[in-house]
Amino acid sequence: MERDSSMKEIRTTTRRDFLKTSTVAASAAVSSMLDINRSVFAAGSDIIRVGMVGCGGRNTGAAAQALTADSGARLVAMCDIFMDRVKEKREILKKEKGEQVMVDDGHCFAGFDGYKRVIESSDVVLIANAAKFHPLHAMTAIQAGKHVFVEKPHGIDPAGIKLMQQAADLAKQKGLCLVSGLHSRYHEGYAETVKRIHDGAIGDVVAIEENFLREPYGIIERKPGLSELQWQCSTQYHFRWLSGDDVVQSLVHNLDRASWVMGNKVPVKCHGLGGRSSMVEPIYGDVFDHHSVVYEFENGVPIYALCRTTNGCHNDYSSVVLGSKGKADIMQCRIWGQTTWRWGGRCDPYQREHDVLFKAIRKGSPVNNGDYMARSTMITVMGQISCYTGKEVTWEQINKSDFYYPPKPEECRDDMEPPVKPGADGSYPVPKPGFTSMI
Amino acid sequence: MLLREQSAYSSGKAWSKHGLKMNRVVKYVAMLAISVVAFQCSDVPSEDRKLPKGYTETVTSKSGEKISFEMVLVPGGTFVMGSPKDEPGRRDDEGPQYKVRIDPFYLCTTETTIEFFLAYYEEMVTAKRQDTEVEQADRGDLDAVTGPTPVYGDLTMGHEKKHPAMGMTWYNAVTFCEWLSRKTGRKYRLPTEAEWEYACRAGTTNIFGFGNDPNQFADYAWYEANSDGEPHEVGKKKPNAWGLYDMWGNVREWVYDFYSPIVYREAAKQNPSVNPRGPAGGEVHAARGGDYNSAIKYLRCAARDYEDKWWRSGDPQMPKSKWWLPQMDFIGFRIARAIDPNDK
After folding, report:
1. Which of B125, B152, B154, B327 to mutate against chain A (most A CBs within 10 Å)?
2. CA proximity to A282, closest of A416, A438, A424
3. Cβ of A220 and B318 within 8 Å?
4. B158 vs A316: CB contact, 8 Å cut-off?
5. CATH classification of the domain holding B247
6. N or C terminus: fewer CB in 10 A for chain B?
């Protein structure tokens, strides 16, 4: 007898749906199939070599999902800024995935350049490290003919995001897979909710409210012996030059959903505000702990987007779409309109990302998320910069800008000085709206 | 033991269709060999009548809010645990039926609410990343109670303060009990699986604890047919004969025991089995009572369930959080307390 139905997984539907889409994609991409097969199934082997760029909790999870998605996948190389993270995660993955983890000591790399060695050794590269490096690492992998899974956000500044777009375009040309960690697009319940909104279930969209209000990112004790650079890298979410701050890091999921609801359109302008209210100690680096951004689309529809990382405050993680005839809550997969509706299924979008990726590789029908990954990230960067500068920022302006947080990712060296340093009181300089200018 | 192995039987079908793999049986039997220990049996008064039928406990949160909860006396007694082979909807792990003696204990009339859980969270949350092994070693020492890491997203999942708390791991629920014990000076804990079933049956021998007619469920439970796909405020339906609300549906309730499909076989060798508390080790813990999305057969007093691999799927990290089951709005808990000599 079945166990309780409320625990049913729906992976079977996932696969069937995917086959449908991939068949269509396959016919459109026949020419690239040979390329894919050559690059992946080296010497007729059915082994797909997987490499990890970044050994934090998220990429370790992604590696487990990749190895779950395809029984022929083998983890062969890993890198991180810190070797102890590499070794620690290798053990965790071995425990979980056994013989699929085949990373010898010679394929554990540390430091800023470790990614090059991982890319050399792999057929599929999983990238989840400080977001500053996502575009460069994705581009390098694609130039080398490797398939890529890359976590969000897809860059932290206009220069980086443009590189990510180029990487996506190149992947398309080369017939390589590029899967984005913007998991909403892989969530079947969200997809069904958005489809119903598009079909008119709540009438015309009037406004969108996006919330990501939560506790601070985990803080790490500063171990003695760490250089200032190592310290910043070890707690990258708290440094803007590495993470891009919270509109970019967190609201990217929300704003990706909002843009999706709006037919993958972009807002024409935004104004934002933000600052540090509670997380003011040096351990919180140089990021803001609260932001609010109001975006506006060409047709006048606004997005009210809020994020906060503080203790003891009201928390909310939601994407609410208000329509002329009802309301939708995307993350609850619910619609209240002329008819109320609720999605009844369950979906693990994180696993699905990898199921889709590896099936696409096996079938030789590349999947490429380049149509939304750069755009959704650029929307967040536009908002973030508006919060820092206090100025209105237009879509045109942000796309014209080549602003980047120095140093350039390819110029990072293990022995360099970090671009931001603490002052005499230990605290880091933070942007001052009205004074700071960036683009 | 690894959660991973759970996936091999996560569909549940494996038990009835293919039987149990031999090596696993051996493992479970080995655990059971050192298993059946009783909670505080020596101090327990034999006469329930002297004990208060219930009491109200109030705690004050960090922000000064007073939160009260009701504990009701579950009288000691003997009952038959599990279900007969011909019970509709039965699974194999509900048998064989066996006789259990339960000492009196107190059980909360409702599932733990969001406001109650938030009081604990606000006091105990720690932004520092913790080393999981070290934490494990600390457990049991009340002065070293560690707190949950910040939840990713929103702990309330958009629900109100009188809704049941949800989406916490068993470990987190147990840590809540430790916190509450320290705060009140009374020893709170999760009920055992046997205590839970005994309390759900409330002295009856029928299928649902209020009778055998599933049509009555609308009066007693938030479940598949009436929940509108979400958990509801606690205590809004009829209680059972012992004054316990939402024993069926709403959220599943963690119990103390590790889950084992064959634990009844072992326990049945004693007659009666006294205050059984499950296997000494295991991979996952049991959770009882079904949830807002459950069909009637999963709301039977005897129906058993346990943590499924799916419950961790909302957490894309590895290692996965030991505190949270993100987005899993169907799992909560209810607190229990053993009688102590001061209860008069």
Report:
1. B154
2. A424
3. no
4. yes
5. 3.90.1580.10
6. C
